[in-house]
Design a protein that fits this description.
The chain is α+β, with helices and mostly antiparallel strands. Helix content is 47%, strand content 16%. The strands form two sheets. A three-stranded antiparallel sheet has the order 3-4-5, covered by helices on one side.
């Protein structure tokens, strides 16, 4: 977003704005690329180079692990540039720039949702920088076609911003914001295999005991098994009774 809209100390007019206010400044127009977008572009470019190295089929496990750490470090550094703008104790604190960045983020997310719905796609979840759409099809190939068509429609609206397909879920259980479990279809040796993906649920927290995590995993397997609800519920009750005994 900082790159797309050229958000920088050198480009955004902050005159007449309270340093701690929530007033959204104007997006700069007809300005040279600012220092901040230029720095981020360098980091993003370097990360892209490292990620391209990771596609090497001859790379050793050690090389892949090293490159993965490097690309994550570059990602963290680039992302923390935004954090510095909104952190009061940072020497680069500039709340109006942080406010403008998050304002554009919400605007982009809303317009992406509207675009999906105008294409008769049901948006079932969205958060920060992602949307989940119900492709309403029965095969991975069809789901990817729907996803790629939508991806192109979104990306055509921007210069640098890009949306990509992260996952194809067969089934999903949405508990709350940033909390869900899903059956992810992952390509392996030309075939798609099912893997459980869990985000933000209590069973992921370190302070929960092993038994609690084991039970949670079993319940999720039943809920996301694809069996009829009555069958899944009966099996869950039976399992919980056994554990209780």
């Amino acid at each position: 977003i900082i790159q797309e809209f050229n958000i920088c100390f050198t480009t955004v007019d902050r005159s007449g704005q309270a340093e701690d206010g929530d007033e959204v400044p104007e997006v700069p127009t007809d300005q040279e690329q600012g220092i901040l977008p230029r720095l981020i572009a360098t980091l993003v470019g370097r990360r892209r180079q490292v990620k391209s190295l990771m596609k090497d089929k001859k790379a050793t496990a050690e090389q892949l692990a090293t490159w993965d750490i490097k690309q994550l470090a570059l990602k963290l550094t680039a992302n923390s540039m935004y954090g510095c703008l909104g952190y009061t104790k940072s020497r680069f604190y500039a709340r109006p720039l942080a406010v403008l960045t998050t304002h554009k983020g919400r605007e982009i997310l809303r317009s992406t949702k509207d675009l999906a719905e105008s294409n008769s796609l049901q948006v079932i979840y969205g958060d920060t920088d992602s949307v989940m759409i119900n492709a309403n099809v029965d095969s991975v190939a069809d789901a990817l076609k729907v996803g790629n068509d939508f991806k192109k429609a979104v990306n055509d609206q921007y210069r640098l911003l890009e949306i990509d397909i992260d996952n194809v879920f067969r089934r999903i259980l949405l508990q709350a914001k940033k909390k869900y479990a899903a059956i992810n279809l992952v390509e392996k040796d030309g075939k798609y295999i099912e893997q459980m993906e869990i985000k933000g649920l209590d069973m992921r927290r370190r302070e929960y005991c092993a038994l609690s995590k084991e039970i949670s995993k079993h319940l999720l397997d039943e809920i996301l098994s694809g069996n009829d609800a009555e069958v899944a519920i009966a099996r869950i009750h039976e399992y919980l009774r056994d554990i209780s005994t």
